[in-house]
Design a protein that fits this description.
mainly beta, six-stranded antiparallel sheet, about 30% strand, about 10% helix
Length: about 300
């Protein structure tokens, strides 16, 4: 959905804003020549509780602190959002002040984005964006073509948040140390290298287009959501957390790791496995392939057509 408006782009922003809290930065950003700047006044986050690692969604607006109750431990998850202009020289979407939680992912489909035209300075609002999808729209005033593409987002921790009190600052230090391995950062592996209890050999997380959220598999999605699942077209590598398009080969374009390995055998381990049939495990399907010692069924000779002919 798209709509034109002049008030959406007139948010009071401090362009010399000091880096604070958690920075939300876009990765793989591509802007057309006619697109001057991008602003996200409404941001929807997937938060993670620092006590029980429970997940909750929260919609944030500029300069307003919002809270949500954790469904597991009933703790308060508080967050404040300070948007920033995205342009050719800056990929920072904004800054977050978090208390009692950490940022897990940005649900781009539920965010509201304002696109500013370079020719006339008009603003065009757009919703329903997705990571990796090329959004093409036209300015409502001069009809210039505006193109916006972002592959994924990452979170960078800076100084302490704006929540007052030494107690809060001390709590945040404990939170950062307790969930250090739970943050999604490009270059670092996912929790459990992307595997889940349903698929132990699938080292990836899938981004489902029906809700824009990340889940290790379709079973995890259906157990957490109440809507029909749509086939995922993008995934995150379990070893380097790079978001990319799902491919049939199942190989990461960043680190080259195999994300969906098949059934391993001693015979096929990249050609370096066991080739001696005498040393192979008897359950290996290559042990008796084309072998003279392989048993064959002779039931047809006893009770089949051949027996009657004899």
């Amino acid at each position: 959905e798209e709509s034109g408006g002049g008030e959406s782009g007139k948010l009071s922003l401090c362009l010399s804003q000091q880096k604070r809290g958690v920075e939300v930065r876009l990765v793989g950003l591509q802007l057309s020549e006619q697109l001057a700047a991008v602003l996200c006044p409404v941001l929807r986050l997937d938060l993670q509780c620092v006590r029980c690692h429970g997940r909750a969604d929260l919609t944030l607006q500029q300069g307003t602190a919002s809270s949500v109750t954790c469904s597991r431990c009933r703790g308060q998850l508080t967050a404040a959002y300070h948007p920033s202009l995205v342009h050719a020289a800056s990929t920072t979407l904004g800054f977050l002040d978090l208390h009692g939680c950490t940022a897990g992912d940005v649900i781009m489909q539920s965010c509201k984005v304002t696109l500013t035209c370079l020719q006339c300075g008009g603003d065009t609002s757009a919703t329903g964006l997705s990571f990796g999808d090329c959004r093409v729209t036209w300015c409502r005033s001069c009809h210039s073509k505006l193109v916006f593409v972002a592959q994924q987002c990452k979170f960078l921790a800076h100084c302490a948040s704006a929540f007052a009190g030494d107690k809060v600052k001390a709590t945040q230090k404990r939170q950062e140390s307790s969930v250090k391995e739970k943050k999604l950062m490009v270059g670092n592996p996912l929790p459990n290298e992307g595997t889940c209890s349903h698929y132990k050999k699938s080292h990836r997380w899938l981004r489902f287009p029906c809700c824009g959220r990340l889940y290790p598999c379709d079973v995890c999605h259906d157990s957490a959501e109440d809507h029909p699942m749509q086939r995922a077209g993008r995934m995150l590598c379990g070893f380097c957390s790079r978001e990319q398009v799902c491919t049939a080969s199942g190989v990461c374009v960043g680190c080259g790791a195999a994300l969906a390995g098949g059934r391993p055998t001693a015979h096929w381990e990249g050609g370096h496995g066991c080739r001696n049939r005498a040393k192979m495990n008897r359950h290996d399907n290559k042990k008796y392939t084309d072998s003279e010692h392989k048993t064959t069924c002779k039931k047809s000779q006893r009770v089949g057509g051949e027996k009657k002919c004899n």
